[in-house]
Amino acid sequence: MRTGAVDRNTRETQIHIEVLLDGKGTAQIDTGIGFFDHMLTALSAHSGISMVIHTKGDLYVDSHHTVEDTGIVLGEALKQALGDKSGICRYGTAYIPMDESLAFASLDISNRPFLVWNGSFATPMIGAFDTNLAEEFFRAFAFHAGITLHVNMLYGSNDHHKCEAAFKAVAHALKAAIAENETGTVLSTKGAL
User: Fold this and answer.
1) What is the distance between the alpha carbons of residues 99 and 97, in angstroms, rounded to a whole number?
2) How far apart are the first and last CA of the chain?
3) How far is the C-alpha of 162 from the C-alpha of 98, rounded, in Å?
4) Cβ of 102: how many Cβ atoms within 10 Å?
5) Which end of the chain has fewer CB atoms surrounding its CB within 10 Å, N or C?
6) Is residue 163 a contact partner of residue 126, using CB atoms and an 8 Å limit?
7) Rounded Cα distance, 126 and 115, in Å
8) Angle CA(6)–CA(7)–CA(10) in degrees, nearest 5?
9) Contact partners, residue 182, CB within 8 Å, separation at least 6
10) Is the dihedral of CA 88, 90, 95, 97 positive or negative?
């Protein structure tokens, strides 16, 4: 079973995350930020990765620590579940439409963390979610999981749709990348990632 479980407790956040890579995309998520919970639920459902995410953060300050730290811990749990990364397809790419919006994500589970984020929002908030934090979440996730991640919100007029398309595009790219390859070995000419 490819599983990961990580706890992180600081003065700003207390987080417990469990992932099951070969789950059915079931989610138990509570971060205290409704729209963020919605996005993480979509990430779980569309990637097929079952997730338990419980985050208690200093929301009286703002949502930055909650969102970024959740990305950190989710990345660490994914990295733990992947182990030495042998037997995975490693790469994934997906275009996802959401009504008038279209997003693209491409990733490499490479141990070379990087984020390229292209896209912006017209509004500062979606519900209680600060739209600036979408990029911060994916940066924290990519760097702590060891993923090179490119996210492009290609177009759209509704910020909810644009953000959701981006999360779902990452989910589908991730699903392809963590799928088992035919050889069961590390997909690298170096023999290791």
Assistant:
1) 6
2) 21
3) 7
4) 19
5) N
6) yes
7) 22
8) 140
9) none
10) positive
Q: What is the pLDDT along the chain (193 residues), one digit of tens a residue?
A: 799 999 999 999 999 999 999 999 999 999 999 999 999 999 999 999 999 999 999 999 999 999 999 999 999 999 999 998 888 999 999 999 999 999 999 999 999 999 999 999 999 999 999 999 999 999 999 999 999 999 999 999 999 999 999 999 999 999 999 998 877 666 655 666 6
Q: Which residues of 164-187 are buried (b: 16+ CB within 10 A; e: fewer)?
A: bbbbbbbbbbbbbbbeeeeeeebb
Burial 46-62 (b: 16+ CB within 10 A, else e): bbbbbbbbbbebbbeee
Q: Give me the residue spans of the domains in the chain.
A: 3-178
And the tokens for 60?
């009286």
CATH of domain 3-178: 3.30.230.40
